[in-house]
Amino acid sequence: MTLTTPEGITDWPTAGFPGVRVNPDTLLPHVVNEDALEAALAESTDPADRIMALLLEGRFGDAAEELAEARCNDPESFKLRIYEAELHRATNRYDRAVQLFRQLLAEVHGTSREPLVHQFLGRAYFVAGNAAAAAESFSKALDLRVAQSADASLIYSSAVALQRARNVLELTS
Question: Where are the domains of the chain?
Fold first, then answer.
């Protein structure tokens, strides 16, 4: 895995996996510590973790193959369904990504998983260039995370994403 680690990443939100953080400008996950990522992958038995790593490496074909196999073994896996939508987002099929995230959102409404789906949906909107919809999704994720007394790192991630979407909105208006 080859990567470039930018300076000043200590304030980047964590991305929920060792060695990965969210770039506060692009709102996309980025490998910042390859050794930590590789060590966590070596210990993991979850196929979703390997799929996530392949997505981060830009190996979308390999990610799609592993995702298809994993979904056959566990078609209802929430995590795999998230990565299915993320694969669409990563390959610029934003409409399909948004559709899948909205479907997941309907299924998890009112549960502890709802803020996570709002966060992913916001990222899909943001990358697709819809900062207004992104800000709305990030705001919902933030409100729900605060209401659920979520981990501070999750609240921070939503706050950073919401602020970035609002900044883009200000620049375009």
Answer: 93-173
Helix (H) or strand (E) holding 31: strand 29-31
46 alpha-carbon distance from chain centroid: 17
Chain segment 12-43, per-residue pLDDT in tens: 998 889 999 999 999 999 999 999 999 999 99
Query: Nearest Cα to 154, choosing from 101, 115, 127, 112?
Result: 115
Q: Answer whether 17's CB lies under 8 Å from 49's CB.
A: yes
Threshold 0.85, pTM exceeds:
yes
The answer regarding whether domain 93-173 maps to CATH 1.20.1330 reads no
3-state secondary structure of 13: coil
Give the separation between CA 123 and CA 89, rounded to whole angstroms.
Answer: 9
Say if residues 122 and 137 touch (Cβ distance below 8 Å).
yes
